[in-house]
Amino acid sequence: MGCTFHKNDNTQILYQRLMIFGAFIFLCIAVFFSIKYSLTTGNVENSIVPYNKIVFPALNCLSAFACFILIFNPKLYKLQLFITFIQSISTLYSGISVLGSFLYLTFIVLSFVYNLNSLSNRKQTLAFVLFWFLCVTGTYTFGLKHLFIELGASFYGTFFIIFSLFSLRDKFGVEVIKTLSSFNLPKFENNTLNLQNYSFTERQIKAITILKTDTNKTYKEIASDLIVSPSVVKKEMLIIFKKLGIKNLNELKQILTINQIHF
């Protein structure tokens, strides 16, 4: 259907497996020490998690098992995000602020790289703010020191990521950002999307062309250009997503930004 598997993907998957293997080793160590702590000390004092001498080791064991699965199937991106989410929350709620903050930031970066979020930018931002609030609220019971460490680390880390992305764009060009954000998108031969390979209707081709001209357009604006209702555009877009093997409008916009189109 016009998609090709690039050789670079093999290298990408190799590094991804190495990253996951490192996480698996780390989680095995976490399992050992969490069980040892539970047997010798009991519950983590001041944690808001009840029965945490059972909950924390159980979460570490679950995460380690899921990580072992990922070594053999690294393309289970949602599972990677789930593990990172669980570990960031449980680590913060066990009083290890710095590591929890690092995992929180890792979750944000992976969400961006794997491009799995079908929410609008506003809803995405709200989701990350709620996640951040959830992380912070788990640290206040350990005292102001832990709370301020989490606030400072998460604030610094978030804007460090934003600064780094803009710096990469300025130093190496926008292609770096495009490559990162297209990790989970289909690849096309010669970076060209051949519309003839997908049996698109005339209206669907027009919608794609309009979006190619201006990727900032919304469903309502595309509908206005096509002189149809927004609901019709949404139905047509769902068909386009299915044919291209993508999930949402943001992914289509990224494909059209990175690739040329051929009629």
Strand order of the largest sheet: 1-2
SSE ordering = HHHHHHHEHHHHE
Range of helix content:
over 70%
Radius of gyration: 22 Å
Distance between the termini: 14 Å
Mean pLDDT: 80
Percent range for β-strand residues = under 5%
How many domains make up the coordinates?
Answer: 2
Quick one: overall form? elongated
Largest sheet: 2 strands, parallel
Number of strands: 2
Number of helical elements: 11
Uncertain stretches of 5 or more adjacent residues: 1-8
Structural class: mainly alpha
Description:
The protein folds into two domains: 7-174, no CATH class; 186-262, Arc Repressor Mutant, subunit A. The two termini are 14 Å apart. With 263 residues, it is mostly helical. The chain has a two-stranded parallel sheet with strand order 1-2. The protein is 72% helix and 2% strand. Residues 1-8 have low confidence and may be disordered. Helix 2 packs antiparallel against helix 3 (77-93), helix 5 (121-137) runs antiparallel to helix 6 (144-172) and helix 9 packs across helix 10 (230-244).
Short précis:
With 263 residues, the protein is mostly helical. The chain is 72% helix and 2% strand.
Write the layout of secondary structure elements.
Blueprint lengths: L6 H34 L11 H21 L4 H17 L3 H18 L6 H17 L6 H29 L1 H8 L10 E3 L7 H12 L5 H8 L3 H15 L4 H10 L1 E3 L1
Parallel strand pairs: 1-2
